[in-house]
From TrEMBL:
<feature type="transmembrane region" description="Helical">
    <location>
        <begin position="12"/>
        <end position="31"/>
    </location>
</feature>
<dbReference type="InterPro" id="IPR001902">
    <property type="entry name" value="SLC26A/SulP_fam"/>
</dbReference>
<feature type="transmembrane region" description="Helical">
    <location>
        <begin position="280"/>
        <end position="298"/>
    </location>
</feature>
<feature type="transmembrane region" description="Helical">
    <location>
        <begin position="156"/>
        <end position="179"/>
    </location>
</feature>
<feature type="transmembrane region" description="Helical">
    <location>
        <begin position="191"/>
        <end position="210"/>
    </location>
</feature>
<keyword id="KW-0472">Membrane</keyword>
<feature type="domain" description="SLC26A/SulP transporter">
    <location>
        <begin position="7"/>
        <end position="374"/>
    </location>
</feature>
<keyword id="KW-1133">Transmembrane helix</keyword>
<protein>
    <submittedName>
        <fullName>Sulfate transporter</fullName>
    </submittedName>
</protein>
<dbReference type="InterPro" id="IPR011547">
    <property type="entry name" value="SLC26A/SulP_dom"/>
</dbReference>
<feature type="transmembrane region" description="Helical">
    <location>
        <begin position="237"/>
        <end position="260"/>
    </location>
</feature>
<dbReference type="Pfam" id="PF00916">
    <property type="entry name" value="Sulfate_transp"/>
</dbReference>
<feature type="transmembrane region" description="Helical">
    <location>
        <begin position="114"/>
        <end position="136"/>
    </location>
</feature>
<feature type="transmembrane region" description="Helical">
    <location>
        <begin position="318"/>
        <end position="347"/>
    </location>
</feature>
<feature type="transmembrane region" description="Helical">
    <location>
        <begin position="368"/>
        <end position="393"/>
    </location>
</feature>
<keyword id="KW-0812">Transmembrane</keyword>
<dbReference type="GO" id="GO:0055085">
    <property type="term" value="P:transmembrane transport"/>
</dbReference>
Length: 484
């Protein structure tokens, strides 16, 4: 026991994480448009491959709700057979970023962009899974999903099977929400698992006309990418998806790591090594034709709260997933799809940062605007371009705030007009400064003091030189400049 001093704590934690992971792995796979077993395979790889590697000792990896929108789009465009290649190449990109020390730079990404990304993903997940809960086909675009909801509800209320399906989905959400109000002893069983079990029992007991998960068997769904799938790499469009997978999965994993570090007093995350671990996991997932993985905050926080002390808990959770997938695939075929939709609707709501947005609006309205614009862009356009829009806005805002420049003009009525510039003089503030300089009397000499300017970019310097030349062209004394 001295070799494994925390074996008991890690063993018990691994059981809790396994029970949390099963419905989420299956639900994410179904929502992504792939066989349910592929979600379990990614969870297994997250435990047995990523779980064994260094990086963040207590966070748990697997298929994430945050990637369902991107995966569904990729499967719709390129097919399930090509998914493995996309995940494999994304994993190789993550490995490269980890080896070149780029992992820690993800900590520099604006929190507003990440929160906006999760908010946008959450909105699309909620809208899409409402259709799944009603047994209806969802429109392809995020905006179409939201706009079509009134019509979907109208269709559902005219169908007995759709109403039964919606009732299962709504009941699942209700159980998850109310489960937290039950005694602690009852809560030792995760709410999502309890909700799925109760939904399954109800659908069987009342013979409800709801669709259930299709089961193909663990070995039947493993499809290593073939030559045709690798041939898709010649298509430029696929590389945008690969880059999106790599960047979004990495950002989600490393922000999760930062959150998990705040939950425990153990070793801190080594960001570049965690990036390598995530990359290795995605390479293996890709070779098996499975879903992409990220570190998942729901499973990770469950792991910490259950008392895990070392990485053994997450490795063991992978073992339990493997045993379940191999020995009890029949259990998956009993699960109603609207129950999984209910789990993901609840997960989608948890991705929307209601409290953070309200706090941001009170203290940093610009950051709150970036969050909202990022979320709306993801819904209206798509995931990758929405994140790029958010990042561009964040960079623009930072550049604007960093370019503080102050202009002081002292005119004593006689002698030269004294002009003093201070701060960071960049092209972003140039129009306003030029307006002030060009309004100075043309028949008066000017002394321009730049000694307090910390940074003067090329555009600003050129504009000042041109203004000084114009001001002196009408016979006035040349503008005297005190250089920075």
């Amino acid at each position: 026991m001295t070799k494994f001093p925390y074996l008991r704590q890690d063993f018990l934690a691994s059981i809790v994480v396994f029970l949390v992971a099963v419905p989420l792995c299956v639900g994410v796979a179904v929502a992504s448009g792939v066989p349910a077993e592929l979600g379990l395979i990614t969870g297994i790889v997250g435990g047995l491959v990523t779980g064994l590697m260094r990086g963040s000792s207590l966070q748990v990896s697997g298929p994430a709700a945050g990637l369902t929108v991107l995966v569904f789009e990729a499967v719709s465009e390129f097919g399930v057979a090509t998914l493995g290649v996309i995940v494999l190449m994304a994993g190789l990109l993550q490995l490269a970023m980890g080896f070149f020390g780029i992992g820690r730079w993800f900590r520099a990404i604006s929190v507003s962009v990440v929160e906006g990304m999760l908010c946008g993903i959450g909105l699309v997940i909620i809208a899409g899974q409402i259709y799944a809960a009603a047994g209806l086909k969802a429109p392809e675009s995020g905006l179409g999903k939201i706009a079509g909801l009134p019509g979907a509800f109208a269709d559902a209320f005219g169908s007995t099977s759709a109403l039964a399906s919606l009732a299962i989905g709504a009941g699942t959400i209700a159980v998850i929400v109310l489960w937290k109000k039950l005694p602690k002893a009852v809560q030792s069983v995760p709410g999502a698992l309890a909700a799925v079990v109760l939904a399954t029992v109800a659908s069987l007991a009342f013979s409800l006309p709801v669709t259930t998960v299709k089961v193909e068997g663990l070995l039947g769904v493993i499809q290593p990418p073939g030559a045709g799938a690798f041939g898709e790499l010649a298509t430029p469009a696929i590389w945008g998806t690969i880059i999106a997978f790599a960047l979004i999965a990495s950002a989600e994993s490393l922000f999760s790591a930062a959150a998990v570090d705040r939950l425990h007093d153990g070793p801190r995350t080594e960001y570049n090594k965690e990036m390598i671990a995530q990359g290795a996991g995605n390479v293996v997932s890709g070779l098996l034709g499975a879903l992409p993985m990220t570190a998942v905050i729901v499973r990770s926080s469950a792991n910490v709260n259950a008392g895990a002390k070392t990485k053994a808990s997450r490795v063991l959770h992978g073992v339990w997933l493997l045993l379940f997938a191999a020995a009890m695939p029949w259990a998956l075929a009993l699960i109603p799809i609207p129950a999984l939709a209910g789990i993901l609707v609840h997960a989608g709501f948890k991705l929307i940062p209601f409290r953070e947005l309200a706090a941001l609006w009170r203290s940093h309205k610009g950051e709150a605007l970036i969050l909202v614009v990022t979320a709306v862009s993801i819904v209206v356009v798509n995931m990758f371009e929405g994140v790029l829009i958010g990042l561009a806005l964040s960079v623009a805002k930072t550049a604007w705030e960093a370019s503080h420049v102050k202009l002081e003009i002292v005119d004593k009525g006689a002698g030269p007009i004294q002009v003093c510039l201070s701060g960071n003089a960049t092209f972003l503030r140039l129009p306003k400064i030029l307006d002030s300089l060009e309004s100075l009397p043309q028949d008066r000499p000017v002394e321009l003091n730049l000694s307090e300017v910390h940074h003067l970019d090329h555009a600003f310097r050129t504009a000042l030189e041109n203004w000084a030349e114009r001001h002196s062209a009408v016979g006035t004394e040349p503008v005297r400049v005190t250089a920075a």
